[in-house]
Amino acid sequence: MADAAGKVQNYKNHTRNFPLFHFVAFPILALNFLNSLRHLYFSPYRQTVWEVVVAFGLVALALAARTMALTVQDRVIRLEMQQRLARVLPASMHGQIAALKRGHFVALRFASDQELPELVREICEGRLNTPKEIKMRVKDWQADWLRA
Description:
Blueprint: H1 19-42, H2 46-88, H3 102-108, H4 116-124, H5 131-137
């Protein structure tokens, strides 16, 4: 499925970098932490120790915020996929929905409705285990342009 600019999403280009986090905030905070360590090495005083602690806290804060955002997003994806699977799967397969893990739901969201029953069957039989394996098997890729 193409976005407004006509770009088609597939397995090779489906990951998303959030520029403000990946290319601005996190690199600045990581460099600040490394610079604080350098200052501590050359001037091992109480103040430079505190600077390292604060710099590490800022890096941890950025990573925690990112992790929390992705966790919430994965919970929403799981809910959406549980509803979609309940609608698409035959009644005889509804019990298998509970056996799926978070990574399975996240990967399955890219599959078309027609592909879902077979993919779920293969997951439950142990033939597909990782999100990567699932995504590689998707033939009719359903784009998700809203990934955080």
